[in-house]
Amino acid sequence: MPHRITHPALMSLTDLEATWRVDTDLSLPECAYDPELHTGPRMAIEHADDRAARESVARQVCATCPLRPTCAAYAMRVRPTSGVWAGMSAADLPDLPDDTVGAFADAA
Description:
Layout: H1 13-20, H2 35-39, H3 48-63, H4 68-78, E1 84-85, E2 88-89, H5 100-107
Antiparallel strand pairs: 1-2
Pfam families: Whib
Protein name: 4Fe-4S Wbl-type domain-containing protein
Domain 4Fe-4S Wbl-type: 30-95
């Protein structure tokens, strides 16, 4: 059975610490306060214009999140197929160079 990828917005703090394998104390990521903004509506059809607007706001939220470098590393590792992760859509992730996560850490 394939492993189900869970967006950080839907994880508990305990799950985040275990999944992201960090030794420091974590706070909740900014996406946790409005999960649907980052994951899209559940059980509903989202029109392209609505999705583009939602993803634009989600990217802005990610830009202020202190966990963005950790989220980016996780997204690069699990390769999600949907949602906004560390300010990027899942469709953007495969095209990123390997040093992208380091750039997030430098900007933080």
